[in-house]
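Hi W.,

Here's what went into the run:
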Amino acid sequence: MKQTTVGGTKRKVMNALAMAGLVIIFIAYMFPFIMVVINSLKQKRDIIKSPFSWLFTIKGLSFDNFVKAFTQMDFINAFKNSLLVTVSATVLVTLFAAMLAYYIVRHNNGISKLTFALMVASMIIPFQAIMIPLVSIYGGTLNILNHRLTLIFMHTGFSMAMSVFMFHGFIKGNVPMALEEAAYIDGCTHSQTFFKIVLPLLKPIISTMVILNSLAFWNDFLLPSLVLTDKKLLTLPLSTYSFYGTYSADYGTIMAGLLLCVVPILILYVVLQKQIIGGVVAGAVK
Amino acid sequence: MRSKNNGKDFCMFALPGMFCFFAVVIIPFVYGVYLTLTDWNGVSKVKNFIGLKNFGGVMQDGQFWTSLLLTFKYVIFVVLIVNVLAFGIAYLLTRGIKGQNFFRAGFFTPNLIGGIVLGYIWQFVFSRVFVNIGESTGWKLFEVSWLSDPTNAFIALVVVSVWQLSGYMILIYVAGFMGLSEDVMEAASIDGASGFVKLKNIIMPLMMSSITICLFLTLSRAFMVYDVNLSLTAGAPYGTTEMAAMHVYEKAFTSRQFGVGQAEALILFIIVAVISGLQVYLTKKQEVEA
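Here's what came out:
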């Protein structure tokens, strides 16, 4: 609905009003973030006295809060854990889902049909309906909780259905059989064909799935909280949670800690904004 | 990839993904149904088969039904407000104003951040910033922290959820508005359709597929709200803002009644599945082709 026609005065006034309305809503949206940034640099006394003021603080601004939050949260370690889990799970689910979807599209047999049907049906199951037996099996019977590998494996399993569904749709519509047949005639094996011919064709859907999955893994709280309890293994959301529990009255440090969690994603967002928004829309509309 | 070597192909291409999926989703789900028929407490090695007793336990768990009712109330508010707000903002954004991409990206920001962090940020806003506004201006509305009163804490939860979810829905509605054909809009204007008539008779029906998606996403997310619930109110004051998903967690992992907890989780799952299935069926029927 781009407005290409020449607008009259009424149109201009309406647009100015729309703009004004948007700016007000936008500022209201950003308000909590602004509060965090301002108060992360202040001392507790000044925060309680006036969370708004920035200049008229008694003790002045300092980065002390950040130093304290950084060490108390064990930020580097939590960041490393989050990164390791997110990257490994994203790579695994992307690869496995692409291969499985490819198999399902090219082999129209009973196993394919059943697996695909189960996957589509399973997408409406909320995590809460699975978490209790999950803990029972992996914590009780197998006793492999408290390993990052277990968490990576579970992330991979939980996002498999959605990912296969997306790859399935894409392969069906965009990967021509003729190309693969040509590859076979040229003497490619099945795995060569997949990795050298098919996988490069999947680039658009791969980038969508990488964005959707890695965001979900990075921010997930409930699953990691059930799997990891050892302090050394905590991911960023988990360490934020335990950090908040200990320092909830120390506002300045808390604000600094929250900001530390947000900044890495925001930097990534500024760089990859187009891809992230495009990926999210593509993921939702399917 | 046809004919020969089928077994090898299957092992290489299909098995890894299938294994993860079955081990993490299907087997626990089936096992979960079995768990509802036992009296397992999470620790003991013995699980006694007790039939449908856990479902009787669910019936007697008044707190579960209270939290379910509260969740319904919450879902209705969140779904309505998020969609009306996101639809409105998306409409304003697609009128050809400057900075559309900037606004869109800004509104989406809360979606990039985990619910735990968002809840804590808002806890500070509600308990310190708003109270400070109340103290310095004398406004009764902000005099005490919203989080200390059951009704206001509920409203706070709705506000934060609306704030969190609407950016995502704005993206989808914007994509929908961009897809509207200009010819149809122009034809409607020439035929003399006023703003409201155009909205009701032309835009709404054509936007129905976006509405289907957004309603589905908000419904399923609002029903399973947990992170923000935990970090913003943690059920306080006195468990009055405990939503169903949080109650299930407490039942299983704090009260150690795994069977009852799992039975409640299944009931919740069935409710969500039926309601969102019904919603998709009903709104899909309204979809039209331009």
